[in-house]
């Protein structure tokens, strides 16, 4: 989602790294480009303005630490402010108590019903006993969809077809949950194409009956700045406790994610990153900031890997990435494991430099492209996979011919993989640099 913003910030950073000294003039020039990048990403203009002003105020008064490039210090300030803008830390659900109700609210088409199913799956994996409640009395397809999701998850769904009173549905759902030992009720409420007062009042009445511990606003990431207006309206009427940002796997510019916390004052708690039920993740501001700044998200990748490989294997993978020793042989093994971990392009994008690799190699369009890449690596000998530098023209011709592709495709793969390795090595140096500056590395950046 943040491809355009990330690319523009990387251009700014290239200029910043060349700064010999920090002055008000060169800082202002660089931060002007940062502000334009944020505005192009559809970030609320007040949020973009305040963000730049905070970074500028800190940068001008920053004492240059010996042996650290001045530009690197500004990059760290931008990183820290970006984390703060996104919410500082992950905000989990408040599930204290014997039985908890959660309300999913939002506009029509934002993904409430699908997100209800995804959230139920996540809670089920955590040992909870969720109950999906069809509280959308206007869209029959919503009830059908929720029932289908319930069957896929092997979870009960409370549906009252023909009932138009959501308050009565709420009361009966509470009684049903108590009788069937379900301890988390997820209310999938009605949406509209635009906010209207009758909808809001209906949600207020439902809230008074079910007393939800969490009221989660489901926002389409493509909504942009309008998401701020929608969120403000829902918060004033219902006092929402957080948001779920959906469709982050699309080409939205990211303005909703970057503006929400600052304007509404509530955290983004989860994000939908695909169409499948498993494509649902807790929102970690520091990890999202790292993705935006081109640092990848090794921690999330390792957590996903840990679901399909043992702990020792996951630890080995993290260590090799951190030291920049990740080989084509490791990459091949991960490609095969990734098939059970979600869309491959999303996972490769978590690697430092992986986003550029995908964009320039045009690998994100189809699974077919990944199979071709796998075929290229399989055509190499184990020695070639561990040491790509030994591949001369004759070896490259053999590999390309055996894979049924042009040598230029192989050259492109090797070039992008080399860039990714260099990015990993730079991240190791970046961690050491932060240590010399007396500050901790970004939370969780090379640790699990």
Major beta-sheet overview: 8 strands, mixed
Shape: globular
CATH superfamily of the largest domain: P-loop containing nucleotide triphosphate hydrolases
- Total strands: the figure is 8
Q: Label the structural class.
A: alpha/beta
Using the 3D structure, state the CATH architecture of the largest domain.
3-Layer(aba) Sandwich
Share in β-strands: 5-15%
Count of alpha and pi helical runs = 20
Helix content bin: 55-70%
The overall pLDDT average reads 80
Write out the strand line-up for the largest beta sheet, numbering strands in chain order: 3-2-4-1-5-6-7-8
- CATH fold type of the largest domain: Rossmann fold
Give the domain tally: 3
At the first level of CATH, what is the class of the largest domain? Alpha Beta
Please render the helix and strand layout as text.
Layout: H1 3-16, H2 24-40, H3 45-60, H4 70-86, E1 100-105, H5 112-125, E2 130-135, H6 140-153, E3 157-158, H7 166-179, E4 184-189, H8 197-210, E5 214-220, H9 226-238, E6 242-246, H10 255-264, E7 268-272, E8 280-282, H11 285-292, H12 298-306, H13 311-323, H14 328-338, H15 344-348, H16 354-361, H17 367-378, H18 382-386, H19 393-403, H20 407-436
Parallel strand pairs: 1-4, 1-5, 2-3, 2-4, 5-6, 6-7
Antiparallel strand pairs: 7-8
